[in-house]
Amino acid sequence: MKLTTVTQLTVDGVVQGNGGASDEDRRNGFERGGWAWGKGDQDTLAFINETYQRADAFLFGRRTYDLFAGSWGSMSAAAAPGREPILRALNERPKYVASTTLAAPAWSGASVLSGDLASAVADLKAGPGGELQVHGSGTLVRWLLEQGLVDEMILLVIPVVLGQGKRLFPRNGPDLALDLIESRVDTKGVTTQVWRPAGRPQYAGR
Q1: pLDDT digits (tens, 9 = 90+) for 161-202
Q2: What is one process in the GO biological process aspect for this record (predicted)?
Q3: pLDDT tens readout for residues 76-125
């Protein structure tokens, strides 16, 4: 399976607390949650729905798993107008959680990856199916990139600068070249970018 990460982030790279609840993630005094809710137009919603529909399985970090299980895992179709494909995909397809503390996930179809995580993810990628998707899970995404396990990155950049919050990439970290596969801007200013990792960047004079 191809491993694809799907991340909503601000122009200044923040990924923390993007969902519909302003108090979704208050770690480290974060007070500006809910910044992505309702920001995209219908074309962006259709793109997100189509992305979830093509997933054969999902991989989550522990925090994102808890958030998704607590919302999408108990949501009715009536409570998700326009997002029914997301709801069906998340509840019908296998879900894997990268965690050393979760023992028995309650969400139907979810299981914990135990042992060596890099080997476990590599085994999933080597198995049948088209696409293994990682939504949110910023800490996990950074680790997967460092391990060379990401095949494609989808970034949905919301036109807002927060000035606080946890960012997708740290101030000091590994470097990575990217090839742009697709890019579009919707009528509300949300930019969708599809990237493929392309080794290390080239630097002037080297």
Answers
A1: 988 888 999 888 889 999 999 999 999 999 999 999 999 999
A2: riboflavin biosynthetic process
A3: 887 788 899 999 999 999 999 999 999 889 999 999 998 899 999 999 99
Q: How many residues does the chain have?
A: 206
- List Cα–Cα distances, 96 to 59, 101, 117, in angstroms: 5, 14, 11
For residue 161, being part of any structural domain is answered with yes
C-alpha gyration radius of the chain: 17
Distance CA(135)–CA(96), nearest Å, equals 12
In a domain, 6, yes or no: yes
Output the CA–CA distances (angstroms, integers) from residue 161 to 12, 91, 105, in the order listed: 6, 33, 35
- d(C-alpha 6, C-alpha 187), whole Å: 20
Give the phi and the psi of residue 175 in degrees, each rounded to 5.
-100, 160
**Residue 202 forms part of a structural domain:** no
Angle at 113 between CA 109 and CA 116, to 5 degrees: 165
Number of domains in the chain: 1
CATH number of the domain residue 181 falls in = 3.40.430.10
> Would 205 be classed as within a structural domain?
no
Task: Determine the structural domain holding residue 7 and report its residue range.
Answer: 2-197
First vs last C-alpha separation in the chain: 35
